[in-house]
Amino acid sequence: MGATYRGRFAPSPTGPLHAGSLVAALASWLDARAHGGSWLVRIEDVDAPRCVPGAAELILRQLATCGLVSDEPVVWQSQRSDRYQQALNPLIEQGHAYPCGCSRKDIEAALQAHGASRERHHIAVYPGTCRPERGGLQGKPARAWRFQLPDLAEVTWTDRRLGPQTQDVATEVGDFILKRADGLWAYQLAVVLDDAAQGITHVVRGEDLTDNTARQILLQRALGLPTPAYLHTPLVLGANGEKLSKQNGAQPLDLSDPVRALNTAALPLGLPRRTASMAQALAHWTQVWANTWPA
Ligand code: GLU
């Protein structure tokens, strides 16, 4: 595989890097280097209302301070709307996507009418109200575009760290959104199209994203795109035992001492502490990494 390996780090610029996101960045960089491959950075700024002005530039500077620099020009999702639309059109034509006129309230009401509101991560499983075979929009204006799950939506895949995974997307998620009611592109569509456009062979990202993988594999199949190998890295927990995130007040990284920040990020990855220079630490970990979670 060697020279063909292409990995990436794809932060959403909703704030500066924090200790948790540096773990994913370091892991994806080490994996690319250990395989003799390329490491790319993609700024996932499709969700404009959640993006913080200047955060993307800050993230890129923070990464560079840690010696992590994209091998190719950075890709910005906000500049790729036309590509996303070009991919949605054939999905619609081939019956893989349909317009949905349901508001959140409509979905909750439909779920309640069915007895129980099945929820996963506080997201209601879409009951398929606007599916074409159920009569479609029935006069409602189109709000969003949804992916029409295939009849068999149970996906099995093997994570390089977590092992075999199975998710029945029909019962756990339902027909998910590709283009939102506010006109913004959904993460699932953008990430799948961009991983393919950038020729990504290996995705290494935080474990909080594991749950999205089955949806992404279904989309890849519908679009005729290859499925990369996946490795989800351990999460860094905050003092309250919850995943460290910008939302629960993770402190921005102190990069006045990048070797220290990298050493802290290396711990959850099972890598030994290195007090050497940044370049030596990265070179050493790259060697150790190959035996940690082989491809
Ligand atoms: N942009 C996503 C995030 O920052 C990561 C997407 C991915 O790695 O697939 O949570």
List the helices and strands and how they pair.
Layout: E1 6-9, H1 19-34, E2 38-43, H2 55-65, E3 75-76, H3 81-93, E4 97-100, H4 104-113, E5 119-120, E6 123-124, E7 144-147, E8 154-159, E9 163-168, H5 169-172, E10 177-179, H6 187-197, E11 202-206, H7 213-223, E12 229-233, H8 258-266, H9 278-292
Parallel strand pairs: 1-2, 1-11, 2-3, 11-12
Antiparallel strand pairs: 4-7, 5-6, 7-10, 8-9
The structure holds glutamic acid.
Overview of this protein structure:
The structure is a single chain. With 295 residues, the chain is α/β, with parallel strands linked by helices. The chain has nine helices and twelve strands. It has a five-stranded parallel beta sheet. Strand 11 (202-206), helix 7 (213-223) and strand 12 (229-233) form a beta-alpha-beta unit. The longest helix is centred in the N-terminal third of the chain and has 16 residues, at 19-34. Glutamic acid binds next to loops.
Question: Mean pLDDT, nearest integer?
Answer: 92
**CATH architectural designation of the largest domain:** 3-Layer(aba) Sandwich
Task: Name the CATH class of the largest domain.
Answer: Alpha Beta
Sketch the topology as an H/E string, one letter per element. EHEHEHEHEEEEEHEHEHEHH
Tell me the structural class.
alpha/beta
Q: What's the end-to-end separation, in Å?
A: 10 Å
Share of helix, binned? 25-40%
Strand order of the largest sheet: 3-2-1-11-12
Output the CATH topology of the largest domain. Rossmann fold
CATH superfamily of the largest domain: HUPs
Indicate the low-confidence ranges by residue numbers. none
Main sheet, how many strands, which sense, barrel? Answer: 5 strands, parallel
Q: In the residues, how many domains can be counted?
A: 2
Number of strands: 12
Q: Name the bound molecules.
A: glutamic acid
Enumerate how many helices there are, as a single number: 9
Query: What is the percentage of strand-forming residues?
Result: 15-25%
Radius of gyration: 20 Å
Outline, from the CA principal axes?
Answer: elongated
